[in-house]
Amino acid sequence: MPEFITPRLRPFGTNIFTTMSRLAAQHDAVNLSQGFPDFDGPVFIKDAARDALYAHSNQYAPMPGVPALRRALAERFTRDTGLPCDADTMVTVTCGCTEALPATVLGLCEPGDEVIFFQPYFDIHKTSVILANCAPKVVTLRRPDASHPEFWFDEAELRGAFTPRTRAIVVNTPHNPTGKVFTRAELQQIADLCIRHNVTAITDEVYERLVYEPSRPHVSLASLPGMAERTVTLSSMGKTFSLTGWKIGWAIAPAPLTAAVRAAHQFMTFSIATPLQYAAAAAIEREQEALGPLRELLVNSRDLLNAALTRLGFRTEPAPSGYFILADYTPLLKAGEPADDTAFSRRLIERCRVAAIPASVFYHDAELGRPLLRFAFCKKADTIREAIRRLETISGA
Ligand code: GLN
């Protein structure tokens, strides 16, 4: 019943994560579609949440977030980037990065302003721009080829996307769905253009701690010379602590940009669950404890899944970070069968009972994603093994 939906949101329908998780449940499939762990974050964080329910207020938190969490986030940002960060004027706690993105775009941009982002993208990078009535300018992350071992962008294409109407660029690193970790050199190209055109950068860094190759560390765009004053850095608790359901995220930016984020945030969610913010502060104090075992689990699950997909005939792309493997399924098509990622993912769910995301939804130019499926590996090894057992039947499917 689309008739009441504003025309600018009609093309998006129900988001793919809701659709695929519902289908996975219907078919009793192993759900490797929506990216969420099938295990919980560390017990000490849940204990801190339980204690906070009794030790602290259960009324509205201050609009920008409870001071204890903002202080913990400010110190963490300084540790990570070497940049000064004032907890009062530079940190805003939001309902996950999923609120922080539209809050930032809505707070900063006028209808008609151009906002640049890369495809493939996580859906809200595009819908935030559409919600704010801004004009999307899309730059393609191209698939690896003989001369590029990883997803890459053409500098001239990026340069061409900047116009006098460009207000902001959204950069997601480490990247969903490709797992790409932008290199310092790539970020420098983006930084140079932002500075030359006086453009604000909005970074989505929710996978910042989930990088698996020591040679490919995560770099925050804000830490590059000249970028601190023009970058809004977004991240969240969900991936770092395997607590995606807590929906605690944040925006860190210089005071004038923070004022813009808060101008919208105060009228979106106003403030975030008070006790969970205290627990988030406790989690951040002991972050390193949680990360070692998590990375080990994720790398093991990634490697299990990647090896199985390759053995079954998929062409996979390297995933040096994050939760996901992008896999080209076209070598498995029967002769003459057209590449249709939606149809192929349906077949996987119905016949193998494994759910993955058809990658065309991550593309502005849907055809570019047609040969690809996205598999989430943020699951226990047993879950991945069960998925592999089911995928083994694919040739008969
Ligand atoms: N970030 C998760 C993913 O990419 C899902 C988030 C959501 O369901 N909106 O799968």
Question: Could you walk me through the main structural features you see in this protein, from its secondary elements to its overall organization?
Answer:
The chain is an alpha/beta fold. It has 2 domains: 10-41 and 289-396, Aspartate Aminotransferase, domain 1 (Alpha-Beta Complex), CATH 3.90.1150; 59-287, 3-Layer(aba) Sandwich (Aspartate Aminotransferase, domain 2). It contains 13 helices and 13 strands. A 7-stranded mixed β-sheet has the order 2-8-7-6-5-3-4, sandwiched between helices. α2 crosses α10 (274-285), α5 packs parallel to α6 (123-131) and α11 packs parallel to α13 (381-391). The two termini are 34 Å apart. Bound molecules: glutamine. Glutamine is lined by residues 17, 34-35, 122, 176.
Count the DSSP helices.
13
The Rg value, from CA coordinates, equals 21 Å
Using the 3D structure, state the CATH architecture of the largest domain: 3-Layer(aba) Sandwich
Count of β-strands: 13
SSE order:
HEHHHEHEHEHEHEEEHHHEEHEEEH
Which CATH C-level class of the largest domain is it? Alpha Beta
Distance between the termini: 34 Å
Structural class: alpha/beta
Fold-level CATH name of the largest domain: Aspartate Aminotransferase, domain 2
Helix content: 40-55%
Hetero ligands: glutamine
- How many structural domains in the coordinates? 2
Report the principal-axis shape: globular
Q: What is the average of the pLDDT values? A: 96
> Major beta sheet, specifics?
7 strands, mixed
The low-confidence runs, each spanning 5 or more residues with pLDDT under 50, are none
Q: Could you give me the name of the CATH homologous superfamily of the largest domain? A: Type I PLP-dependent aspartate aminotransferase-like (Major domain)
